[in-house]
């Protein structure tokens, strides 16, 4: 890797190749020197050498946001790439093959790709990353993902809707940059998880949220290489829906989604709690973790500032939706006696609310019923929660620029925050590597048979045991995240049949002893998943 320094700021800085991406995120590009200083000559049509790209204004803090992690810095750049330093001391990267420049370290983009099948990654005692090809039993310092043939094969294997999401996610991630040499420590007790987390997060300066997030549980042995962080998000998100706090309510009978409780004001600290929850959501988005609760789609649409429609009502109140649809499809003259107002119960009292000015005096007719439906839908989906929503949005904005989420639609935003929860065992098996086992080993065959026989709830609990999260990325198990980026699930032979299975959630690894029967393995796995908590997690 070569590094060169520019001699001052060039007057022929080319347009950034990422300007359109910046605009898509709702950020205006920074003015070039040629725009700021009238005496600087115009840019020639073809610069003699690549020069630094422009940076957007809200990402322009000098020397603080280069997209390179410590792990990536120990790896060589891909072929054809070079790192240089601008006149202001800001590193940038030159792609000589495509004759373009960018601020983002290409190694961070490459880390989003999984290793080819049969490959694994390790680190030497000196901290240098190396790669193991189990297919040929060889090791190398060259990252196999730099192979352009493999890159094209990987991209072509992804369904189009996933490629679109990955493209958006890649653009979004370029602006979520961990601040070097800054840490955000979180130490909580399992017995008082919600309040401990609330007190620490709300007393943490927002500038620390973009540092390295380090989570520890009190009185437990553990090093957070990412596993404890994932577990903290998982446990805390489940505490958020604790009915004792009156913050959320289930939006439907099957308890699969939640909505903001319009009567959360019964808790005098509810707005502080909603801002705290917003910060937790922002932290999860920024650090690439998942929240283990599913909000209603209207809440995601509100995050994106998208208008709410009648279809959004169907999920939370299908009967009310059905009645409104009947109004639109049929004549209501002499059938319904309605005005542009609604009555509802609030803390046991009947309250009347005008949907528009003097609404209680305006009759709903066949001519204006469409307007009535539009207003009543908006009221039904947002009634009594405007303050709570503003507090939640404020908390998210303490961590990330919430406007940058607008490149996603509401369903993509749900995936970004919650991941995918349905476990495809075949996909899991296809994207698993083994150490001291092979796919044909009898214990491995038993493992996949057991997981196929378990119901989805039990599979989710097993996934949480071995990875620290119950969510699967949109791309499936091939995109499973570890402590250093994408890291496939690994099963390693360790111990004797008397041992319990052990997990290393930071590395998505299961230590599986060579059990002597399928029944013994099933019992040991169930015991480990259901009974084990907080034992020297990594």
From TrEMBL:
<dbReference type="InterPro" id="IPR001202">
    <property type="entry name" value="WW_dom"/>
</dbReference>
<feature type="domain" description="WW">
    <location>
        <begin position="113"/>
        <end position="146"/>
    </location>
</feature>
<keyword id="KW-0677">Repeat</keyword>
<dbReference type="GO" id="GO:0016567">
    <property type="term" value="P:protein ubiquitination"/>
</dbReference>
<keyword id="KW-0808">Transferase</keyword>
<dbReference type="Pfam" id="PF00632">
    <property type="entry name" value="HECT"/>
</dbReference>
<keyword id="KW-0833">Ubl conjugation pathway</keyword>
<feature type="compositionally biased region" description="Polar residues">
    <location>
        <begin position="58"/>
        <end position="67"/>
    </location>
</feature>
<dbReference type="InterPro" id="IPR000569">
    <property type="entry name" value="HECT_dom"/>
</dbReference>
<dbReference type="Pfam" id="PF00397">
    <property type="entry name" value="WW"/>
</dbReference>
<feature type="compositionally biased region" description="Polar residues">
    <location>
        <begin position="1"/>
        <end position="15"/>
    </location>
</feature>
<dbReference type="GO" id="GO:0043161">
    <property type="term" value="P:proteasome-mediated ubiquitin-dependent protein catabolic process"/>
</dbReference>
<feature type="active site" description="Glycyl thioester intermediate">
    <location>
        <position position="506"/>
    </location>
</feature>
<dbReference type="GO" id="GO:0005737">
    <property type="term" value="C:cytoplasm"/>
</dbReference>
<feature type="domain" description="HECT">
    <location>
        <begin position="204"/>
        <end position="538"/>
    </location>
</feature>
<dbReference type="InterPro" id="IPR036020">
    <property type="entry name" value="WW_dom_sf"/>
</dbReference>
<comment type="pathway">
    <text>Protein modification; protein ubiquitination.</text>
</comment>
<feature type="compositionally biased region" description="Pro residues">
    <location>
        <begin position="42"/>
        <end position="53"/>
    </location>
</feature>
<feature type="domain" description="WW">
    <location>
        <begin position="75"/>
        <end position="108"/>
    </location>
</feature>
<dbReference type="InterPro" id="IPR035983">
    <property type="entry name" value="Hect_E3_ubiquitin_ligase"/>
</dbReference>
<feature type="region of interest" description="Disordered">
    <location>
        <begin position="1"/>
        <end position="67"/>
    </location>
</feature>
<dbReference type="GO" id="GO:0061630">
    <property type="term" value="F:ubiquitin protein ligase activity"/>
</dbReference>
<dbReference type="InterPro" id="IPR050409">
    <property type="entry name" value="E3_ubiq-protein_ligase"/>
</dbReference>
<protein>
    <recommendedName>
        <fullName>HECT-type E3 ubiquitin transferase</fullName>
        <ecNumber>2.3.2.26</ecNumber>
    </recommendedName>
</protein>
